[in-house]
Write a structure and sequence with these properties.
The chain contains five helices and no strands. It is mainly alpha-helical and about 70 residues long. The chain is globular, with a radius of gyration of 12 Å. The termini are far apart.
Amino acid sequence: MRFVEGLSSAIKQGTPGIYKAVMDIPDFTKADQMLCLNFFMLHKGVAKGFMEMSEQDKEYWMRDHLALHNFGG
């Protein structure tokens, strides 16, 4: 439970709304979403740009990111 609280705190201190923005994109597995979320937690500038994208562009970004890293999506 402490890990979840720590993750929640880190997200709130990082880019607000990024968790929901990533997890609300349909047609991705939880593992794919978490991989992208982890990337955003490490790269706040990219996360801020992601938050400004349209829903269609967010989906494209995630598919591209996962493909570049040899994951599904």
